[in-house]
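User: Fold both of these, please.

Assistant: Here is the first one.
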Amino acid sequence: MMEFEKEIDQVINSDQQLSPPIKLVTPNELHRTIMKLSNKKAPGFDLITGEILKHLPRKPVVFLTMLFNAVFRIQYYPKLWKVSQICMTPKDGKPPTDPGSYRPISLLPLLSKVFEKVFLRRLKPILDEEKVIPDHQFGFREEHSTVEQIHRIVEKIRLSLEKKEYCSAAFLDIQQAFDRVWHKGLLFKMKNLVPNSFFMVLKSYLHGRKFQVKIGETTSKLYEIQASVPQGSVLGPVLYSIYTADLPCKDDDVVMATYADDTACLSSNKDPILASQKLQAQLDDIDVWLQKWRIKSSATKSVHVTFTLRKGDCPPVNLGREQLPHKNCVKYLGLRLDRRLTWAEHIKAKKTEANLQYQKLNWLIGRQSPLSLNNKLLVYKCTIKPIWTYGIQLWGSASNSNLEILQRFQNKVLRDISGATWYTRNAEIHEYLGMPTVKEEICSYSSKYQDRLQGHTNKLARDLLMSDPEDTRRLKRWHILSLSDRI
């Protein structure tokens, strides 16, 4: 390991070919960036807010422009912009004497975020041109969402069920992934990925970062940050994607799906032993990579699932020396995937979650509330409806008996919102309120989702619309393109 660190130090400190300077910032560009800032964002230790920057006259904006261009020119990131203030927010119902009862929130100076926005606008075209970020990474990317990543996994499972295969899947838990990014390892990877002018700015950006903890009005002294990408920063997610871009994925038969640090691997075969063997080979490569780049994973918090219509399970798999626990249902990116992909567990969980939210808001949108009908509907659409409509493009292919669970819930809520009598038909309430039914929502969401996939920038997402000529479509209710015909 020491030899590897020496090699990294040599690469980082080695000479690099000259590169064109970074495109300079103009006052107009900086002004447009400032005007897009949110006034609700909490300031850093300097107490400069977005509202303050928006009221700056022309002359200070020109001065900031000169400062940003000086950072590009001399490739030195100001020390004051590297200080993050960690505010400890107490969790509800937790003992205040336990350090684990607090949620740390990192606050950076707002001027540093403005600079990062300007810098990222110049860095992103280089990353896209060189295809640094792999296609299977859907996190922190424009026009990429969790639904599309889950759809890739669902499609792999569905095809396995169609062919009566065993799908052995591992959903990995990476511990404090963003906090464990090794700075030298990140610089080593960026050395040959970005031009020298960008590399030197990023090197200064990562070097010598400090933090202080704030509880109430009390602050600690400054401590140096030895690892991690800056939390709360604009560049942090991009740097993490670069750091994990070389996550091994050698076997084309194994589907790799990553969304930030949420990682899933799936392998299918008619023989459950072969399915787990391919998955185990992939997990072995991942374990070697994690150890090499100093990222820890928790095998006990990871999950191994066998998706199949047949009896029996795939043999267990290990991550390192620890065996992954086997379960019949897993929660990935907010959706619950059960063994036979019936969506029953997911729909029941969402119904329970939505019902709890409705009970909290019953005083506001219930029968006794003096709130107007339009405002009651607005509260329902903004707070309760998004709970159960998330991922509807995928779980909308569930059986009618499962869909009726959510339909009955919506009937009850709309009946209370409108104050309808017991003999009023549910269809009349929906028509009066202008609210679509669950099945109508499925058709609407699915149609828009298909249009979005057709023009998607990622080939892996576009391929989800392509039908397999060898697919018999025996289980049509799992296929998203058959929703409109089925409904």
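And the second sequence with its predicted structure:
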Amino acid sequence: MIDEGKEVTQDLSMKATLDSMFQVAFGVELDSMCGSSEEGKKFSIAFDDASAMTLFRYVDILWKIKKFLNIGSEASMKKKTKIINDFVFKIIHTKIELMESSKDKSLMKREDILSRFLKGTENDPIYLRDVILSVIIAGKDTTATTFSWFIYLLCKHPSVQDKVVNELRELANAKKIANFADFAETLSEEVVERMQYLHAAITETLRIYPAVPVDGKICSSDDTLPDGYSVRKGDLVVYQPYAMGRMKCLWGDDADQFRPERWLDENGVFQPQSPFKFTAFQAGPRICLGKEFAYRQLKIFATVLLNYFEFKLSDEKRIAHYRTMITLHIDGGLQVRVLHRNIN
């Protein structure tokens, strides 16, 4: 049995999503999970600290004065920002140098986001830094917190955890592979796409615990909403995915229950709902560009981990509560017991 520390699931999820994002999006081995990269470790810590300080500005009416005087939290924010900028600019300049000097054609065919930008006409470091940080901000905490809530709900509903494991073992032939690294290599896109119950379980998690619980938009022009309410240019319109996911008028009398089957038809095939009803990824022209990447990442994490490990809450009576933040973190983290699962 592996009995991890206080924030095992949430903390490790944060590190894992950050590492995979850097690898896929920027072609960089950050390795914050193992901590072998000192620069990567400093960047990860600075990024999290800067995110928390940014949120604190909403309640600190003196933050602009502190920033001008370079004191208190804003002095610390300046130091954290420098660490972040230095790290990101180094990645950009290193990638530019490699692509300009390397004779290895395979390097020029890299499919990561940064390489694609550099192969185009946009080489402004400031712009590229903003792209990199936007991708990290949009995809790091959202995916990690969703996975934490997913594990929490599987612990609370062992029968669902068993169904997910049965599906992945049937589709991925997991029983034949003892090494988790070898198993991960066998997870083709086709296999992952066929995991309908897992997809439903993740979607049901997002319905109850959306990564961004409250969201808002600024009106770009005068308009009239579908219910007849008029809004003007510059108005802030806020909606709440957290509350909407629990409305009985939208989801039925069992809206407060975790039931992945609500997303499946009689043949066990996933049936999507309107994004204007299921708003975890927003809807319309502003729908999340990283939606499919997030699902793919979550499904791969879940498949590999659940095939080899069984998750149980350290305190099975504990009810998890959210922490008031931009993204829906579990307050105090999630303490779990991780047991080796029989793969035979």
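The longest strand covers residues 309-313.
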